[in-house]
Model the fold of this input.
Amino acid sequence: MSTATIAQKTIEIDQEGFMKDHTQWNEDIARELAKLEGIDELTDPHWAIIRLMRKEYEEKGDGPSIRRLTKESGVPIKELYQLFPKGPAKKAAKIAGIPKPTGCI
Amino acid sequence: MGFKKMKKLVILGGGTAGTLMANKFRKALSREKWKITIIDKEKNHYYQPGFLFIPFGIYRKEDVIKPKRAFYPKGVEVLISEIDKVEPDKNRILLINKQIIDYDFLIVATGSEIRPDEVKGMTGKLWRKSIFDFYTLDGAIALRDFFNQWEGGRLVVNIAEMPIKCPVAPLEFLFLADDFFKKRGLRDKVDITFVTPLSGAFTKPVCSEVLGGTLEKKKIKLETEFAIGEVDNKEKKIISWDEREVPFDVLVTVPTNMGSRAIQRSGMGDELNFIPTDKHTLQSKSWENIFVIGDATDIPTSKAGSVAHFEGEIVFQNMMDMIAGRPPSASFDGHANCFIESGSGKGMLVDFNYDTEPLPGKFPIPVIGPFSLLEETVTNHWGKLMFKWLYWNAIIKGREIPFVGAEMSMSGKQIPKDIKNNPNIVNN
Done:
């Protein structure tokens, strides 16, 4: 297991950079993680998705797939890709501080 | 009136998983006390791992079809019918002819099916003309006919989205295609590209690296993190959600895989119609007298015949426990075992579970093998062909396979030095 210091807080991360413990997360960490993913500014639509990711993880023990994400958020897949380029479910999970969704394996 | 006391086990789906369950339970449960009913809409059993070989003329249609009846045990009621829905709160099933079938225990083995209609433009005017699948018998045959007259161009193999049945099949398809066009003297005229939503050739790091190397050796291009949004039938290209484009002359798609529509009608599935299932007990998360087995579950392991076989032992033990009034005692570890045909008469073998990714080594007996894990050998290729015999004669009959248990074994596996200390790779 490795650790990283982000936004002045030491967090545990896995090999691919997903946080191991979502309770260590805060909004400053999210902003820093987003920058590492190439997203310079988190806008309201970003935050809505990040909160949804965390809510789903807390309820179900797993982050949502892109299909579930678009269904639950009402945001079309195309826009999710604009918000979180390359892999919205994976990238949003990383920024939201939850483990990699199993649907992404 | 003694019949009134009979308990009822209903098995929904007579594919690999459902058939092996019928065989196990009919042997174990008394015929006086237990009525077993198996329901499936199809009369034929398809050897699905064989579909992959059809486009290349290695197997024919006759090699992959047998009547289902030949594999159901005696003393089981067989209903050939589509179902309308399951009503799990009432412990009953409605057939489309309105007949009602009730149960004490239900095993759902309704599998998964391809849904090319889930991607815009996929089933447009090029479908089965320049766009093919090999996950259905009709698709595999249409592709064989196409390849027989094709003179070369851009061949694109695309996975629409995960999860898919048999995640190694697209790679095997690529290796066999490379071989096929070499033998026909066309390889220099065929440009092969593998377009995947994953970040590498396969889902797990060590395996992905080995397989990625094999692709490179065979001059197969790899385009990763490509989530298909649309097929442009006019300009013959696939377009991702983030607007990348890959042109094709022939597109071989591994379409979205979804659970049965009957599961959707029953309100029992997730957004892909797969049933939320306890990954260790294999019980439905919502109804404790319902077990789910094979491709129908949402558990994070491969959708494959070997998995159904290993799960069979777990479901059997846990249901027998419940019948005896005990809590379920068996726990599934996600064990999967897959032969990967790699072309030129060679094959690879991978063996893994929830916690341990495919590793190199010997299988099933340490040092001796005879099979080599994660390495191309001729013996592995014969293992793959032998698997067909094993499938028809042992697996769907619910028999055990010598040396290979439901729980994955670490013996014979080598842990590469650089990953030995990495908890993500070996957790046990």
User: Anything to note?
Assistant: The first strand of chain A starts at residue 2 and ends at 6. The mean pLDDT of chain A is 90. Strands of chain A lie at 2-6, 9-13. The longest helix of chain A spans residues 44-60.
